[in-house]
Amino acid sequence: MTVSRSPLGFPRISARVRILLWLLVVMAVALGAVAVTVRSILQRDVDHRISQLLTQETGEFANFVPQGVDPDTGGRFDTADRLLRIYLQRQYADPDEELLGLTGPAGDRPDVIRQRRDLPPDTALWQDTASLTRIRADKDSFGTLERPQGELRWAKVEIGPSAGGQPGAFVVAFHPERERDVADKTFWMLLALSGVALLMTTGIGWAVAGRILAPVRLVRTTAAELTEQDLTRRIPVEGRDDIAALAETFNAMLDRLERAFAAQRVFVDDAGHELRTPITIVRGHLELMGDDPADREETVRLVTDELDRMSRIVEDLLLLAGAERPDFVRPEPVQLAELTADVFVKVRTLGEREWQLDGVADREVRLDPQRMTQAMVQLAQNAVQHTVPGQRIRIGSRAVGSRAEGDRIELYVADHGPGIPPEDAEVIFERFRRGTSRRGTRTSGAGLGLAIVKAIAEGHHGRVELRRTEGGGATFVLTLETDS
């Protein structure tokens, strides 16, 4: 298997892999953010529940102090010790909660009154004398202790000394480790599920990306297999999505390339043939040229004539090559009647014919006057070549269409010669294609004149047509759409 490399020598990463990597990165970030957010919410809920529990427990004890009744005497409690013992006997603590009573002066080692609970000895607060002393001496009613055994949240309610008795305090202690462990386990479980989801996404994403990019790979493979000799491969178009549109665009490009290469091959063959003939003539005459002055003069005349013909062919080829450029025609507002009259005046010198200005369209249109004059003169020259002296050639323009000013305009050159044979009508506008002369001979041109006329018409987004002349002959019509 070959590895594609970049111009710098680094291995290329395929679009399929890049799509998959981006998908995995986005999903990993999203799933990680979800897991962290859930853990943060659970931890916040744990803190909120502990705070509510501490507030509730201390509030219940604070209400019991002034209202509680000693079951033995039926009266008020006479000592803090007795109050704490009776209250603790009646309470049920949560699994992670400790309810303690402390008696003795603040700052001294307190005496501890506790419920009978099975708490781990290493975490139970009632066995941690140092922590109890700190809580007893603390002036705040709520607090948190960071101990080697773990975090401890606490709250307390102070009890004033009675007659002859010791002061005391009611302490609620909560060990949040187990609650936090539940949140952490949920977090790690979400991470594990996210990992499984990423693995599944990898497989599914790889398959989906491959299916989506299959037409793109086919485009690349087809492009790699294309050669100038074989442009026939096409990509199957399936569906109506962007990939299908890409395949259609690529196929259309191949159609244009195939037509362009075919036209190029024909063009090169025909151009080679047309240029080879004058070159052969020039070489032959130069090789046979003798010392006789008259012979040399005739040879120079013939060679110069052939060189002039080659020059005209090259100029025409350059003109046709420029027809593909966007600035081939430069439209501007033109009075059609004035343009038609100017063309008529210019073409009258092309030959001894019966020239007739047949009609003019009196309106303004947008076109390139120089290119349009060039096309009309070429059509007139073509008419002269295929008629004899004295035959009539008509020049004119007209507006055609349903509207008052017409939907389009037509400029035409009509002759009354023999006409165009049907078999020639299909090819005369192609490059280097010459029809049979209407006098039964071949024309002397290179076969580019009507191709130039066609290029000028198409440059104006119009067309050139061949029609029969009433009474016999050929009429060439340049048809242009109007903007009005």
From TrEMBL:
**Coiled-coil regions listed:** none
Query: Which intervals hold domain Histidine kinase?
Result: 270-484
One Pfam assignment:
HAMP
Swiss-Prot/TrEMBL catalytic activity: ATP + protein L-histidine = ADP + protein N-phospho-L-histidine
Q: Which InterPro entries match?
A: HAMP_dom, HATPase_C_sf, HATPase_dom, His_kinase_dom, HisK_dim/P_dom, HisK_dim/P_sf, Sig_transdc_His_kin-like_C, TCS_sensor_his_kinase
Keyword list (alphabetical) reads:
Kinase, Membrane, Phosphoprotein, Transferase, Transmembrane, Transmembrane helix, Two-component regulatory system
Q: Which domain of life is it from?
A: Bacteria
- What range does the record give for the signal peptide? none
The record's listing under PROSITE patterns reads: HAMP, HIS_KIN
- GO terms of molecular function: kinase activity
Q: What is its EC number?
A: 2.7.13.3
* Boundaries of every HAMP domain copy: 210-262
TM stretches of this protein? 20-42, 187-209
Protein name, entry field = histidine kinase
Native organism:
Streptomyces rubiginosohelvolus
